[in-house]
Amino acid sequence: MGGRIGHREVQVKAPGKVNVFLRVGSQQADGYHDVAIAYQAVSLCERVRVVPADEFAVEVTGSVELSRVPSDDRNIAIRAAKLLAERTGYRGGARISIEKHVPVTGGMGGGSADAAATLLACDTLWETGLPRDEMLELARALGADVPFALTGGTAIGTGRGDELSPALAQGIFHWVFALADFGLPTPEVYAELDAHRARHATEITPADDAPTVEADVLQALRAGNPRMLAEAMRNDLQAAALHLSPQLTRTLELGEASGALAGIVSGSGPTVAFLAADLDAALELQVALSAAQLNVVRATGPVHGARVIE
Ligand code: ATP
């Protein structure tokens, strides 16, 4: 086999994300919702290492709770590697090692980052040279957040969140993430939102068919201004996540009382993301929330998407 393979090992780093804006449109006939998302890739990253093998296998280590991560064919990294092999006609396999630092089922796209990292790592390992647009197409087939984990930076996602366009952004935003010791499956949070909208159909304005990201969010990102962004952040899934996990309300209150400019449930939760004014404020917030027994990590954004580590 050795002669066919140029690399003995490839390592890729891919970022988790925070949705600084997430609007959920009305439910479509296929059950999915159109969304409008402003994504920011953050410095909480996954590392994926691949080595050649005859079959496909995965092992998972890392700094976050790992009990909910499958280590068989259900792992999205294996699905990504198999999809690439199928598309390119590659006949071998890969042994995949994931080092996880993005909370599992935390609303920060950790599985999506693993999928994106594995696509890039295997394409490099196998020298299959898949064009970028085809890689994005495979990413989309694996999950709505996977294309963004490949591209990183700051982007707007529409459709299911996977139709990406880059957003102008400058500066560095400082975040403190409060990790929960439980997960919230994304479909349950959407179901809760649908139930809420059905119960209150007569009182609330119907959801948009084609939601968009509001101008003040784009302006805040473009200006690199955390105070403006704090004012503009919004997540339509937050009320549903809080309904399912009322204890997150206390987390949000604690962060805002400890100097955060604003707190927001990240994606479908249960991670809560706090935006700080600068590095010093983020460090102070991290200390205050740790003292209140919360499990917190600090990160910055935006960072680049999946990249091979030399
Ligand atoms: P998103 O924000 O994209 O909805 P998330 O961050 O909430 O995702 P993930 O941690 O990406 O959640 O995915 C969690 C689900 O995916 C769990 O049901 C888990 O069992 C399954 N899964 C499959 N592969 C992986 C992986 N490599 N890492 C984490 N979870 C995985």
Automatic annotation (TrEMBL):
Chain ranges of the GHMP kinase C-terminal domain: 218-291
Organism of this sequence: Pseudolysinimonas kribbensis
Domain (GHMP kinase N-terminal) ranges: 75-153
Keyword presence, Ribonucleoprotein: no
Protein name: 4-diphosphocytidyl-2-C-methyl-D-erythritol kinase
Binding residues annotated for ATP, in chain numbering: P103, V104, T105, G106, G107, M108, G109, G110, G111, S112, A113
Annotated gene: ispE
Function, in words: Catalyzes the phosphorylation of the position 2 hydroxy group of 4-diphosphocytidyl-2C-methyl-D-erythritol.
Catalyzed reactions: 4-CDP-2-C-methyl-D-erythritol + ATP = 4-CDP-2-C-methyl-D-erythritol 2-phosphate + ADP + H(+)
Pathway terms, separated by semicolons: Isoprenoid biosynthesis; isopentenyl diphosphate biosynthesis via DXP pathway; isopentenyl diphosphate from 1-deoxy-D-xylulose 5-phosphate: step 3/6
Signal peptide: none
Upper lineage: Bacteria, Bacillati, Actinomycetota, Actinomycetes, Micrococcales
The protein's enzyme class: transferase
Gene Ontology MF annotations: kinase activity
